[in-house]
Amino acid sequence: VLPLSRGSLDWDEPLLVANLSERINACHIGCQDLESVNSTCDERCNSLVAIDSCIQGCRAVTDIFLHQIQDLLYHVSISIDGEDAQGISTTWKLDEVYSTVISEISAADIQWAVHSRPFGSGAPWQITVLEEKAFKEDSMQSKIVVPSEFANEIEVRLCIFWRSNMVVSRSIRQSIVGSGGRPHAPKLIAQLQISTNSYVICWSSPLPRLYKVSLFLLDGTLVSSTETSDTCFLFKNIPSDNCCRANIGYATLNESSIDVANAAQLVFTNGTAIMKLYDVDDYVVLTNPKAIPFDLAPGRTITALCSISIDRILVALDDGSIFWLSIIDAANGLVRQPDGVAITHMDVDYLQQKVYAVLHKKGIVRCDLMDCSNSTTLTTNSINFIEYISVDSWNGFIYCITNGGEVFSAPLFPLYAPSTLSFPTTEQINDAGSSFALEVDHENSQLIFVSQNGSILSMSTIDRSISDLRSSYELSDQYKSVLKAHFAKNRLFWTSSNCGDSHPWDSCLYSEEWDSEKKKIHLNRYLYAGRVVDFTFLRNGSFPPTLLPPSTIGLITSADSALVTWDAPLSMPFQGLGVDWRNLRYECRVMNENDEESAKAELTHLDGTSLMVSVSPGVQYHATVRACVMTVCSPFASAINSAFAPFNGLTPI
Questions:
Q1: pLDDT at position 569
Q2: pLDDT tens-place string over residues 512-529
Q3: CB 491 within 8 A of CB 511
Q4: Do the bridges between strand 420-421 and strand 376-379 make them parallel or antiparallel, or are there none, so unpaired?
């Protein structure tokens, strides 16, 4: 039997390139692929004549092994042993008939884990990794505590990770008390002021509950509050000024209202593994962080993390490679090939949909979020090199810290930049002094510096004024030897090399903790037994609430055609010059005098700023154009003109 490559309709090489005995031998060589931790199929097969037969052997043993695992997981059972504040205690049992199979697959480098979530919610699976000795030592059962859920029922399944594969059992439905689980916060999906005195909000939630909805003025004053079991609510008779901000919580909870935004989820790495902290207020780390499966090649080290969204991160290694990783199911993929230069820091531009990564002592590389084949590299001075960056995607700047602690700003890379680039201009921010780390806070229009003198500074991204962010509060200590820092809900989290005599590792995690009166801030170290190389918060990208419309628009008509032209939105005085850094698209519509749509088009920045359409003679037309970035759009700019009347006279000769 001669193998046919997957997806092929014909054989890639002549059938007589190898005889039968050579093909059988090549297949046997491929069948030895299970002997190593990771697949060595390419190395085994590339030196052979019958490569396809060797690959056939690799695939055959892989399929057999995966089918063994799948058959085993089909016969698993579970029992609930109890619930407490730590979680739901479960016992997983396998049939005694499969003891030999368990021994065989346990010889391979497999990882057991449990998926759990509220039943019927469609929420992402939570992954709880079993200890390494699970189902070993002739044991046909294993105990594991999975996270509590705010639900009456949960669904769970046992899974096995092997190489890049994940095999799962059927989903098993179990009844629970649910008192120990934290609620899944409702998510605001739409809000709109639909008239001068009415405001509507809609939200989604994994589980139906009685909700408490509140409306506030922008200064925090409560306007209205009520309870409802629906997922949309209309506020009436609201003030016309300084309005509005919505908040949704669960009415049945005795605790304070839950914010619409998801609770901060901190993911960190010790250099060899990736973990999620269950509770950012648990400084003692009573609950072990949840491991997020990620296959790391031998000898490699994780050097940087960066959040793409609420359920996906980027992982950078010391060889220059970048991977995307799903927090939900541990799926991952290669974004950037290794080049031997370590990546030390990353930041995402959510408007450009790009990631900026710092190359150790080399410069900055920019890639797409899922692929780096069309990258742009900026090379810097090897003596005064860039160590830290933060991207201001709203205003068109990238802020950098050099190895000497100097802070400067530079224009963002153009959206369609060449493969190599240099900063056209840079501006040093002298008032910032020497800094350890920085981060743009879009919500409050500020750039946060952690200064080397032990303080936190804030620079307005509007007028560039600088102030001490914590001057009004009493601090328990200074911010010392900061390595990485993130700002979340007016609270600083950071890693430091100043870990104390009792901490043998070279970097540890800290965060601010406010006292009950909000007058004093304690700088607390997390008692995690290990080093913390980098960390990030799982969060979706933030977009500006609106854009400026096209600065001018024109509509030129003839008897049968019309040309709509417009200019790009103007930049505000505090923004970067031009529009090359903006990921703009334009929506253009042409309507006739009867409000019938004559033409509609969506154009990118590369398509230009004009549109030619056909029109009918003697009819008045209304053209509108707006600028958009991702899901954010400007108001429409408009122009009106009438097509020429049809020419009925004699044509002169």
A1: 92
A2: 998 867 789 999 999 888
A3: yes
A4: parallel
